Amino acid sequence: MKKKDIKILLVDDEPDILEIVGYNLSNEGYQVITAENGSEGVKKAKKEIPHLIILDVMMPEMDGIEACEIIRKNPDLKNTIVAFLTARGEDYSQVAGFDAGADDYITKPIKPKVLVSKVKALLRRFKEEDVADTVKVGSLVINRDEYKITSKGKDIILPRKEFELLSLLASKPGKVFKRDEILDTVWGNEVVVGGRTIDVHIRKLREKLGDKSFKTVKGVGYKFVD
Amino acid sequence: MKKKDIKILLVDDEPDILEIVGYNLSNEGYQVITAENGSEGVKKAKKEIPHLIILDVMMPEMDGIEACEIIRKNPDLKNTIVAFLTARGEDYSQVAGFDAGADDYITKPIKPKVLVSKVKALLRRFKEEDVADTVKVGSLVINRDEYKITSKGKDIILPRKEFELLSLLASKPGKVFKRDEILDTVWGNEVVVGGRTIDVHIRKLREKLGDKSFKTVKGVGYKFVD
DNA sequence: GTTTTTTGGCATCACTTTTGCAATAATTTA
DNA sequence: TAAATTATTGCAAAAGTGATGCCAAAAAAC
After folding, report:
1. Where in this chain does the record put each OmpR/PhoB-type domain (chains A, B) (predicted)?
2. Calpha distance B118→B193 (Å, rounded)
3. pLDDT in tens, A64-74
4. What are the sequence ranges of the domains in chain A?
5. Measuring CA to CA, which residue among B191, B160, B80, B138 is closest to residue A178?
6. Under an 8 A CB cutoff, do B160 and A220 touch?
7. Is B208's CB less than 7 Å from nucleic acid strand D?
8. Which of A71, A198, B20, B200 has the most CB atoms in a 10 Å sphere around its CB?
9. How far: B192 CA to C21 C1' (Å)?
C-alpha cells in the first residue's frame, strides 16, 4: 500500500495539537482527517475507515476511551489501529485504554520525530497484511476487504449496509441483536433512521442468503442462525 | 481473563518458527505450549485445552488440515480458536482450511508485530464470547442472549413476556413469587394490567414446559419447581 | 446514469390482554 | 361437619395492540 493511500484520523479537542500533529503527518505523505471530539471522531471513523486513529484520551462530549470502545465494536474497523494520546504518566488511562482495545500509546508532549517514527512503526503492519483478511463464521466466510461473502462456495457481493448488517449478525450466530443494538452498530448512535429501514435490509439479506438464515424474534430483534 | 491465563498452542515442525513465534508470544505474556507435528499437536490440544491453536499447514506425520478437523470434532475444544500458518499466496490451503474449521490465517514469513497484533485481535473475540449470558437452573438453560430456553435438550423459543416470566420464576426455583412481585418485575410498576393476565401466561408456560413445573399457591402467587 | 438506502403506507401476523364463565379452594355459617 | 358463601384461579375464545413484512417510490450515494 502506498503512503498516500493511508488514512490517519486525528481526534483531539485542542486545535494546536490537531495542527502540529496533522502537519507532521501530512508532510510525511499520509492522508490526514481530523475531528474535534469523540463523537465526531467515531462518525468519521465509520465513514472513512482509516488505517490508524490517534485519539486524545481527554475530550469533551465523548472521551477517547468511550470512543475507542465504540470503534472496536464496529467490524469494519477491526483492522484499524487505535493509538491514544495521553499525558506522560497517566497510568490510569493506559490501563483503561488497553481494556478499551487500544493498540499503542503516544505520550504528550509530542515530539514530531518521535511521533512520526511511531506512526510509521504502527503502520508497518499494514503493508504486510495485503493477504485477504477473511474471517469464518459458521458456514460463511466474510471478507471485509472486498465486501464479499462466500456462502457454500458461492461468492456474494453485498452493498455496504447489507454487508455491515450481516457482519454484525453473523459475528455471533444465534445471538439476538436488538433493534437498538443494530442501529447503534450499523448506523451509528447519532444517525436516526426510520423504523422500517432495518427490516428492509433484513429482507434483502434473506433474498440473497436464504430465508432460514435469519430469524425474527418479535419484540426483540433478529438473529443469524448457522 | 488475564493474559497469563491464556494458553496458546503452537504446532510447527520447524524449530525456528516455533522459537520465534513462541518467543514473541511469551514476551506478550501468554502461556505458550508447543508441538512438533500434527498428531502431537492434537494430543496436547486435548490435554491442555488451549484458547488459541496456531497450526502450520504443512507438516510431516499429520498436516494442519487434518489436525484441525480432529480438533474440531472434540467438544471440549469447541471454543478454541484455530489459526493456520500458511505461506503467502497458498490459495488452496485457505479454502481447505476454512472447510476444516479454521478461524483465521497468519501468513509466512512471520513478522512479530503482525503476529502479535493478529493474536490479540483473535483473542479479543474470546473475551467477549466467554461471557455468554446463559444461566442454568435445574433442568433449564436460560439464554438471555439468544432469547432461548433449553429444556431437556429441546430448544424452546418463547415470546417476550413468557420468557421474562419464566426467567423470573426460574431464577429462584421453589420460591413463591407474589402476584405483585411478578407484575412489578415483568410488567413494570407503571403498567397496570388486569388480574387475569398473569395466569394466562402461566397457562402458556404450562402448555410449553409441562404442567408440573409450575405450582400455584392460592392467595399468594406462583412458583417454579425443578 | 445506476445502484443503494430510506421512507411511508398498508396488510398481516404474533403476541398480549381482556372478558366471561367454570372450576377449585378457602372461609363462614348453620 | 356439611352446606353455603366467597375469594381465587383456570380456561378458552375474542379483542386489542403493536411489531414486522412488503411494496413502491423518493432520496441519496456512487
Report:
1. 132-226
2. 53
3. 888 888 888 77
4. 3-127, 134-224
5. B160
6. yes
7. no
8. A71
9. 23
Contacts of B124 in chain A (CB under 8 A): 72, 101
User: Residue B217 and residue A199: Cα distance in Å, rounded?
Assistant: 43
Give contacts of B157 with chain A, Cβ < 8 Å: 217
User: pLDDT (tens digit, 9 = 90+) per residue, A95-142?
Assistant: 555 566 677 777 777 777 777 777 876 776 555 444 445 677 777 888
Distance CA B115, CA B64 (A): 18
Q: Which CATH class for the A134-224 domain?
A: mainly alpha
Q: What does the pLDDT read at residue B155? A: 83
* Stretches in chain B below the pLDDT threshold 50: 92, 130
For residue B99, the tally of other CB atoms under 10 A from its CB is 14
Over residues A77-82, the mean pLDDT reads 78
Distance CA A208, CA A189 (A): 27
Question: Do the first three CATH levels of A3-127 and A134-224 match, i.e. the same topology?
Answer: no
pTM of the model: 0.58
In the sheet where A221-224 sits, what is the strand order?
A176-178, A221-224, A214-217
CATH class for the region spanning B3-127: alpha beta
Q: Any CB–CB contact under 8 A between A217 and chain B?
A: yes
Residues 124-143 of B with CB under 8 A from A: 124, 129
Tens-place pLDDT, residues A8-54: 899 998 888 888 888 888 887 788 889 888 888 888 888 778 888 99
